[in-house]
Specification:
four-stranded antiparallel β-sheet; alpha+beta; 3 helices; 166 residues
């Protein structure tokens, strides 16, 4: 068997996504394998509109369009943020994924943080369980927890505000 024939076999394995190929000719034995690739699942969620973005959009759209924008903001999970906009904080920690939110690492331990606690950037604020994986939610800011916007064991959506930091 010459190199051209071997290259033809290699190309066939590649072109046809073969996972295994064996050839025995006289005292030459060729074994070609190609492992199956695991399918990658990619999920993309639409980002939620935060209170500041909703306010800017409302100003730009005018009074007539603002009435239509309000239901969209509520639909995107920003209704509670918009209602509490009077407390004013542009530091909002949002959910990076869909799952179940937990305030503590176990039911019999104290919550990671509560309103009035001082937090540092990178400090764990809560946990979101998604597909049996526990994902720590860390503070993106230094400051004081102004509000905890979700309850323990509440299902949260992607982009949903979880904490307000001042």
């Amino acid at each position: 068997m010459n190199i051209d024939e071997i290259m033809t076999l290699v190309k066939a394995v590649s072109d046809y996504n073969l996972t295994s190929f064996e050839l025995e000719e006289g005292n030459v034995k060729i074994s070609l394998k190609r492992e199956k690739e695991m399918p990658q699942i990619v999920t993309v969620g639409a980002p939620a509109m935060d209170a500041a973005s909703a306010a800017v959009s409302a100003q730009m759209m005018g009074a007539a369009m603002a009435a239509q924008a309000a239901p969209a903001a509520a639909q995107n999970g920003a209704a509670e943020s918009s209602a509490d906009a009077g407390i004013s904080s542009d530091k909002v920690v949002t959910s990076p994924l869909v799952g179940t939110f937990y305030t503590a690492s176990s039911p019999d331990t104290e919550a990671f943080v509560k309103e009035g606690d001082t937090v540092k950037k990178g400090q764990v604020l809560g946990i979101i369980e998604a597909m049996k994986l526990m994902n720590e939610i860390e503070s993106e800011f230094d400051g004081v927890v102004e509000a905890v916007l979700v309850k323990n064991e509440e299902v949260v959506e992607y982009g949903q505000p979880l904490f307000r930091i001042r």
